[in-house]
Amino acid sequence: MDAATRIVDRYYRTMTLIIGHRGASAAFTENTLAAFAGAESLGADWVELDVQATKDGKLAVFHDVELADGRLVADTAFADLPDEVPELADAIAACGAMGVNIEIKNEPTSESFDPEHKMVPAVVEVALAHLSRDKCLISSFDMGAVNAVRDLDPRIMTALITQDDVGPEVSIGRVTAHSHRAINPWDALVTPRWIAAAKEAELEVNVWTVDDPDRMIELAQMGVDGIITNVPDLAVQALR
Fold this sequence. Notes:
Elements: H1 3-15, E1 17-21, H2 33-41, E2 46-53, E3 59-60, H3 88-94, E4 99-104, H4 120-130, E5 136-140, H5 143-152, E6 157-162, H6 168-177, E7 182-185, H7 192-200, E8 204-207, H8 213-222, E9 226-229, H9 232-238
Parallel strand pairs: 1-2, 1-9, 2-4, 4-5, 5-6, 6-7, 7-8, 8-9
Antiparallel strand pairs: 2-3
Helix pairs in contact: 2-3, 3-4, 8-9
C-alpha cells in the first residue's frame, strides 16, 4: 500500500465505522457466534445484533419475533430455541474488541410487543458488564425502549432506528426531543441534506443496510459515522 492509499484508508476508517449487520451475515448464519467472530476477522469495527426476551427472561440474540416453526420467541424458553441462537452476553463476548450496537426488538405492531419494556434493565446490565460505554450503542425502532435505556443510564449512547420517509427534520426532531445522541436511518432515506440536518443537530448517523461498495464510498464522503453492512470485507476494500 503506497503512502497516498494509507492516508485515504486512515481517513475513511477513522471517520466511518464499518458495522457488521447481524455479524458478517453474508458469509455466516446471521446473529450467531460465528457471524460475530467472523465480522472481526473480516475487518469490521463494530457489530449490530438483535436482542429479545424469551419466555423465561433470557436475552436471545435473534432477529424475527417468530421462529421458523411459527412459535413466538417471547413464548419460548431459551433452551427450546435453535442451538445456534446465543444469549446476549455470549454474543458480546464473541465480538472481541469490536463495539456493539444492540438493537432491542420491540416493535409496537408485533404480537410480542412489551409496552412496559421489561427487558431493558437486563439489556443495560449485560451491556455494561461486558462493554465500555464508548463501545456500546443501544438502538430500537421503539422510541419507548430507547427512552427506557436513557432513563436508566443517560451515559449510554442510544439511537432511534427509522425507515419513515417523513423528511430529515421530522425524524431528527423526534430524536433530539427525546435527548438521544444517534439515529440509524434506512439507506434509501439518506441524502446530503439528511446528513447535514443530522450533523446540525449533533447526532451520529449509522446507515443500514448497505452492501454496494459505490454507495459505501458515497456515504463516507457525506460524512456518515457508521455503515451497517452484511459484507464488512467489501466495506473495508471500498473505504480504501
